[in-house]
């Protein structure tokens, strides 16, 4: 993922010249659309709770240890969870604008991913030390922060490390705050270098590269904490009973993306068949390659596909699930489309159905959503291998969370990196053998 944070982001405007003038959308328009969604979502929080309830809910969720799986709609309330999500979305959008980053695929994916995980793990307290650590890394390298901004945004996956040390380990609060934020600074300092190295491990077939990197870093910190006798409890807070209201809420959001996409694509859905021919392997920036309009159309379609899957199998729309949907929607700008995610989701469903997990419980549901990090395998090698990747991911993801104690929010990115590293060499060897025969 870090490969897109430097030259690919900074030079994207030049590559956009390849598109027709009718499909080209200015950076200012893209910024306004993303910021507009953030503000509208922020205001929508007041449909669910009063201002005083939202404030008290924000206090509660900010003080939560936030390890997986902590639904902020439960520890706070629905309005405070949405407010927290939207506020962080606004902040990172403005940070990107201030640093003159083009609003193309990687940054849109990062913004929506932060919005999603701010429903169940990221908050206004636990992201800043990591962002500051990446900023210090950039200063030490004498580089612009914009070169590392994608790593910084995705690196907030380890926000629960900060929250857990602060609020979950029974350490006196003043010292806990110091220890926690030092850990966050260390995370931010090392992530850019580690992410650049580990992308070779899965060859770009795991779209959540920083999730894999964060999994390794989180595993180290968890081992360190365990060596001092600390252990993270298993956490499961989930809201239920909101399917009708959130089904309507999300449908309005995704329909608006389809409408805006249609308008910005010269009042047409044309070109989408070309978009879904792309494998999605990193780096595949749909905004640069296919235009902002088609990208919005793709994002809206992915929203309906993922929400439809959850409702079809009898799942609940709550903070973590909506967070997963937001993440897939965001990556609809950067690697995921309707053709390459469905085989992986089918594979996850088969894996859960024929094994010991219920397909409509939280683990398999999140695996179906976030397992689409492996969508490039289906895009590159075909639907059969996409199903196989999803099947393998289902087994792997249910067993790696204990390594980092739930402190890496991108647990599926961690699992996806391992699956891709195991599967891709085997597929390539098998295909070479077939060609030789």
List the helices and strands and how they pair.
Elements (H helix, E strand, L loop, with lengths): L6 H4 L1 H4 L11 H18 L6 H12 L9 H4 L2 H21 L6 H13 L10 H13 L8 H7 L3 H9 L5 H30 L6 H19 L15 H22 L7 H4 L10 H5 L1 H21 L6 H12 L7 H16 L8 H9 L4 H7 L1 H22 L6 H26 L1
Helix pairs in contact: 3-6, 4-6, 6-7, 7-9, 7-17, 8-9, 8-11, 10-11, 11-12, 12-22, 13-16, 16-17, 17-19, 18-19, 18-20, 18-21, 19-21, 20-21, 21-22
Task: Describe what you observe in this structure.
Helices cover 68% and strands 0% of the residues. The chain folds into two domains: 22-227, no CATH class; 243-436, no CATH class. Mean pLDDT is 93; it is low at 1-22. It has helices spanning 7-10, 12-15, 27-44, 51-62, 72-75, 78-98, 105-117, 128-140, 149-155, 159-167, 173-202, 209-227, 243-264, 272-275, 286-290, 292-312, 319-330, 338-353, 362-370, 375-381, 383-404, 411-436. With 437 residues, it is mostly helical.
């Amino acid at each position: 993922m870090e490969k897109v944070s430097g030259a690919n982001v900074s030079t994207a405007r030049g590559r956009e010249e390849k598109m027709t003038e009718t499909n080209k959308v200015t950076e200012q328009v893209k910024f306004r659309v993303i910021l507009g969604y953030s503000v509208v979502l922020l205001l929508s929080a007041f449909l669910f709770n009063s201002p005083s309830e939202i404030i008290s809910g924000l206090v509660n969720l900010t003080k939560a240890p936030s390890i997986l799986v902590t639904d902020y709609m439960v520890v706070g309330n629905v309005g405070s969870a949405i407010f927290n999500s939207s506020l962080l979305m606004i902040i990172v959008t403005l940070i990107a604008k201030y640093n003159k980053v083009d609003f193309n695929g990687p940054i849109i994916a990062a913004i929506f991913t932060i919005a999603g995980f701010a429903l169940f793990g990221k908050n206004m307290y636990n992201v800043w030390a990591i962002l500051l650590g990446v900023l210090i890394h950039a200063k030490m390298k004498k580089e612009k922060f914009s070169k590392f901004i994608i790593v910084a945004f995705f690196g907030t996956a380890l926000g629960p490390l900060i929250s857990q040390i602060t609020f979950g380990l029974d350490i006196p609060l003043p010292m806990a705050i110091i220890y926690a934020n030092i850990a966050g600074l260390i995370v931010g300092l090392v992530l850019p270098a580690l992410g650049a190295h580990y992308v070779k491990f899965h060859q770009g077939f795991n779209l959540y590269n920083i999730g894999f990197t964060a999994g390794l870093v989180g595993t180290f910190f968890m081992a360190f904490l365990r060596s001092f006798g600390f252990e993270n409890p298993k956490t499961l807070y989930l809201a239920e009973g909101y399917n009708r209201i959130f089904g309507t809420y999300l449908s309005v959001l995704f329909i608006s993306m389809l409408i805006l996409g249609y308008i910005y694509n010269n009042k047409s859905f044309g070109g989408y068949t070309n978009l879904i021919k792309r494998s999605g392997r990193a780096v595949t920036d749909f905004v640069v390659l296919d235009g902002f309009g088609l990208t919005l159309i793709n994002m809206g379609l992915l929203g309906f596909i993922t929400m439809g899957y959850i409702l079809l199998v009898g799942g609940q729309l709550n903070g973590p699930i909506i967070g997963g949907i937001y993440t897939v929607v965001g990556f609809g700008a950067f690697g995921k489309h309707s053709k390459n995610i469905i085989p992986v989701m089918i594979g996850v469903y088969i894996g859960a159905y024929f094994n010991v997990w219920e397909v409509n419980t939280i683990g398999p549901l999140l695996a179906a959503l976030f397992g689409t990090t492996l969508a490039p395998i289906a895009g590159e090698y075909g639907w059969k291998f996409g199903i196989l990747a999803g099947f393998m991911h289902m087994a792997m993801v249910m067993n790696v969370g204990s390594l980092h104690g739930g402190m890496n929010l991108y647990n599926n990115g961690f699992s996806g990196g391992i699956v891709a590293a195991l599967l891709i060499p085997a597929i390539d060897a098998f295909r070479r053998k077939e060609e030789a025969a």
